[in-house]
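Work Package 3 (structural annotation) set out to generate three-dimensional models for the target panel prioritized at the project kickoff. During this period the team completed the workflow that converts sequence records into discrete structure tokens, so that structures can be stored uniformly alongside our sequence database. As a representative example, we reproduce one entry of 163 residues exactly as it appears in the project archive.
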Amino acid sequence: MFEEVILPHLNAAHNLARWLMRNDQDAQDVVQESYLRAFRFFDSFRGGDGKSWLLAVVRNTCFTWRRHEKRSTQEPFDEATHSANVHEPNQEDSLVESSKMRVLRDCIEMLPPDFREIIVMRELEEMSYRQISDVACLPVGTVMSRLSRARKRLEKCATGRRG
């Protein structure tokens, strides 16, 4: 049952953890810990949406991990600096698209954690307002409000960086 309900959401779990932890290695550790916790407490799962239940576990594990590791004094991982360029030279469209994605990624990274997690769950994981509400333990109205404010900040940031 665990394999059918929870395991299919591994990519979503890693995606949320990556955006909350701000680096891939910590995200992998958090996802591993989250899956162990989910397996250990699977008896408490009362049915419903396995993705929402798992992402709530991932979210809580991220917050616990950050409190214990006190990572706030370190520089955040800069994806653009540490990743290889994957676009082919002389491909103008590819360069433009890559530049847009880098701007968007940087702008998401700059969002406060409360906004960043909502944007990731809604726009990248395509979760419903109700699912996000369940994961974040927030009223649906608060989810909608944070999403609206996050989108405005992203738009302002992206517009300012494009010049």
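Confidence is low (pLDDT under 50) at residues 86-90.
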